[in-house]
Write the C-alpha cells for this entry.
Amino acid sequence: MMKRYGITPTIGSALAALLLSGCGPSKPAAQPATPSEIGRRIAQSTAPLTLVHVWATWCDPCRAEFPELVKIMEHYQSMDVVLVSADAPADKEAVEAFLAEHGSPQGSLITTELTQAFIESLSPKWGGALPASFFFQDGKIVREWEGKRTHDEYAETIETLLNK
C-alpha cells in the first residue's frame, strides 16, 4: 500500500528514524547576552535596517504580537532582526520552546541585565515597557516604539525606512 503513493517502506522507516533521532528541524536557540554584547550586535550589522525587538514569554502583549513579528521576519529578510528576551537567563528552555511554538525563523538573545543601564543602552527615551521595538540604520536609532503593533504598522515603518 505504501508503494502506491511512491513511498517505499525503507524510505518511510528511514524518515521516521531521522525524525525520532532529533535530526529533524532544529528549534531556535536562545542565549544570554549582556547589554554590551547586544550593542555590539547592533553596531556590527551590515543590513540596511536592524530591528531590535525586546519581548518576554510572560508578557501578554508580546505573546499576542509575536505571530505578526514572525511574518515580518520572513517577509523582510534583508533586515537584520535582533530578538532580545527579557526573561531570566535561567528560563532559556521556555524561551526556546516559545520561539519553536510560534515558528520563529531565528533564535533570541536573553538579556542578562534588566536594569536602567540596559534600557538606556537601547534608547534613553524607552520607559521599559514591553514589547518594545527599535529600528537602527548604520548603528543609529531612527525609530522606536513601546507596545504591541500590527503587521501593517511594522510593514509601513520598515518600507518607509528602507526607502529613505
Notes: The longest strand covers residues 140-146. Residues 1-24 have pLDDT under 50 and may be disordered. The CA atoms of residues 129 and 146 lie 6 Å apart.
